[in-house]
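Example 3.2
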Amino acid sequence: MHSLKPMILKPLAAKTPLSVYRLLMVFSLLLIISGCTTSPPKTQLDPLNRANALNPPPLSWQISGKLGIRSPQKNGSVTINWQQLEDNFTIKVQGPLGQGSAVITGTQYSAEIKQPGKAPVRSNNVDELIFNSFGWSLPFNDFIHWIRATANPERQISNISYDPDLNTLSLLEQSNWSLEYSRYKPVESWLLPGRIKATQNGTRLTLLIRQWTIL
């Protein structure tokens, strides 16, 4: 008599839809790609992009402080209150180098200086207007950018370096001027300098900023 072998019933494998296989393949590829991708180190950032940050302070601000000047023509200091509203500015200076007090208003294309007891003086060149009136130079078109610790985007950068800890601008050379930045302070969403020293040949400007206001 032949013995009957028991039949072993195997469970039927559930059929996997084709769309599920495709989804698993895509998921696997994404995992492989994400594992191979790394973020570039900060040191590889382009210097110009760092000087002109993705979120720079707006070109509407106000500062108050003291400006020291050493030049072949003049030595001394003035108190300064500078309000910049996009292209329009109002600069109030007071002290020996301001010949008492003065108010400079205008844009980078036209400016006027008013002093007590004197007729207003106007010029289409702000730098020349300040030099002819006070005897010291201020590179105005560049300084409205430099004061915010950013380079003038329309001019070439000769040299630039950053604080390794704060990643803030520490040295900038542009338009034949050399600028050193220090004493940064938090102002709303930004770190802004409290001391800027700008030198060119025999002229040195030292700006000590007591108060920053973003307008």
